[in-house]
Write a structure and sequence with these properties.
The complex is a heterodimer.
Chain A: H1 3-24, H2 28-48, E1 51-53, E2 56-57, H3 59-90
Antiparallel strand pairs in A: 1-2
Helix pairs in contact in A: 1-2, 2-3
Chain B: H1 2-8, H2 13-27, H3 32-57, E1 60-63, E2 74-77, H4 79-102, H5 106-128, H6 132-151, H7 155-187, H8 192-198, H9 203-220, H10 229-235, H11 238-262, H12 269-292, H13 296-312, H14 314-317, H15 323-355, H16 366-369, H17 371-385, H18 391-405, H19 409-434, H20 448-463, H21 468-475, H22 480-485
Antiparallel strand pairs in B: 1-2
Classes of the chains: A mainly alpha, B mainly alpha.
Amino acid sequence: MNPFLGYALSGVLLIGIGLYGAIVYGHLLRKIIALNVMSGGIFLVFIALARRAPGVADPVPHAMVITGIVVAVCASAVALVLSVRVAVETGQAALPGDHEDRA
Amino acid sequence: MIALAVAVSCPIWAIVVPLVGAALTMLWPRRATFVGAAATLTTLAVVTALTARIAQTGVQRYAVGGWGAPLGIDLYADGLSAILLAITAAVAAGVSLYGLRYFRAVSVLAYFWTLWLFVWAALNALFLSGDIFNLYVTLELVGLSAVALVALAGGGAALTGALRYLLVSLVGSASYLLGVALLYGQYAVLDIASLGAQVQPDTVTWVAMAAMFAGLMLKTALFPLHFWLPAAHGAAPAPVSAVLSGLVVKASFYILVRLWLQLFPIAVPAPGQLLGALGAAAILWGSIQALRQERLKMLLAYSTVAQIGYLFLVFPLADTVAAQTAWLGVLMFIASHALAKSALFLCAGNILRYYGHDRVHKLGGAARGEPVTFFALGLAGVSLIGLPPSGGFIAKWLLIEAAMASGQWWWVLVMVTGAFLAATYVFRVLGDGLISGTVSARRQVVAPGMAGAALLLALGATVLGFLAVPMDELRQIGWPLVAVRGGQP
C-alpha cells in the first residue's frame, strides 16, 4: 500500500473523530478542541495528496494548509472568547440544551 | 474622466474600499459614523462602476499582484457576480443608512461599522473569487465577521446564538475545505474555469462534491440543517439580522450555484431532486414554524428558513428545457428576498424601539403610531408573499413557469402552498397593527432615517418587479451553462 494513502486515510479518520466530538460533547472547550482535530485531519489530507511526482512535493497544498492554519487559529480565538463570555453570562460552559458533561 | 472610470471599475476596489473603511473606523472610533458613511458611499460608487463595466464590456479578470492564474489569485467577475454585487450594494445602502441612527453607545457603534464593513468587503471578495480555495477563505471571513456582529447585541441569547452559529459555520467550511483538498488532489488546479474543463465523473470527484455541498447546505441553513439560524438571526441587533438574512445566507448559496453550473461533471437528476425535496420541506416547515412564533423577529427568522427552501427548487429544474427560466427566477428570488427580508428586519427593529417589545399579538395601533414603518412592512410583505407587481411575484412566477414547462407540477403545489402560508403569517402581523389598540407607555420616537431605510429597501423589492429584463441581460454575460453543457434553450 502506498504510504501517502495511509496518511490520507488517517486524515479522514481524524476528521471523523473531530466531527463526532463536535456533535456529541456539550462542553464548549471540548467542542472547540474537536473542531481543531477535524481541521488537523483536513490538513493531513491536503499534505498527503501533495505528491505530484515521485520524490517531488507540490508546494501549493502547503501554502493552502498554512492559510488554513491561520484561519483555524483565528476561528479558535473567536470561539474561545465567545465561550468565556457565554460562561460568564449564563453560568455554564455549554450551549442551551447541552450539558457540560463533567466526565 | 474615462480613464478614471476605467480605473475605478477595477474589481479590486470593491474589496479594498470597504476594507480600508473598516480599518479606519477601528483606528478612529469617535468618527466611526462619518468614516462608515463615507466608505459606504465610495463602495456604492465603485460597485456601480464595476457593474456598469461588466454590462458594457463583458467578463472581467484581474490578476492580483500581477501573478497569473495557476499560481496567483485571480479575481473573476461575470454577470452572475455582478448581480450579486449589485444586490449586496442595494441592501448595504439601506443597512448603512439605518446604522447611522440605530446604535446609541459609541463603543457599540464603532464596532458595528468596523464589522459591517468587514462583512461587506468579504462578501464582495467572495462574489469576485475565481478559485475554490479563495472561496473558502472569503467564506470564513464572512462567517467570522457575521458571528461577531451577532454577538454585538450582548446578553445571553445573542452570545449563545453567535457561538452556535460560529461552531456550525466552522463545521460547514471544514467540510467544504475537505472537498477542495480532494479536488486539488485529483486535478491539481483550483481555478474554477480550468477545473470545469477537466472534471470527470469519478468517485473522488463525487465525494468531493458531496462534502462541499453538505458544508454549504449547512451554512445556507437548508432544512434540516437550519437549527442554528433562528437563534442567531432572532437575537442579533436589527440591522445585523437584516444583513444575515438578506445577504450572508445567499453567499454560501452563490457558491452552490457556481459549483453546480461549472463543476458538476455531468447532468444527473438524483441530486437535483434531493435538493428540491429538502427545499420543499424547508418551505413547509419554516412557514409553519413562522406561524407559531410569538415574537416578530423570530417569525421573520423562520420565514427566512422557508424562503431559503425556494432557492433550492432551482436544482431539480436546472437540467431541464426550462433551465434558463429557472435560473433567472432564482436570481430574482435572491434579489427580492434580500431586499424584502432586510426591510422587514429593519421594520422589526423600529417596532422594537417604538413599543419596547416585538410581540406579534400586541402590535395594535402600529399603523397610526409608526405609519412609515408600517407601510414598509406591508410593502415588503407583499414581495415576500409574491403578490404583483413586486420582485417576489416575478421570481415565483418564473419558477412556477419553469416547473410547469419541465413537467414537474409537484413543485408548483409546494410553491403555492408556501405563498398561502406566507400570506397568513404576514397578515397575522399586519392585521393587529391596523386595529387601533392601546399602545403601552414605553413608546419611543423612531428616527426618520430608520423608518426611511426600511421604506427604501421595501420600495426596492417592489421596483425589482420591473427589472427582470435587464437582470436577464446581465445574467447572460459569461453565463457558464452554455459553454459547459453544450447549451440548453
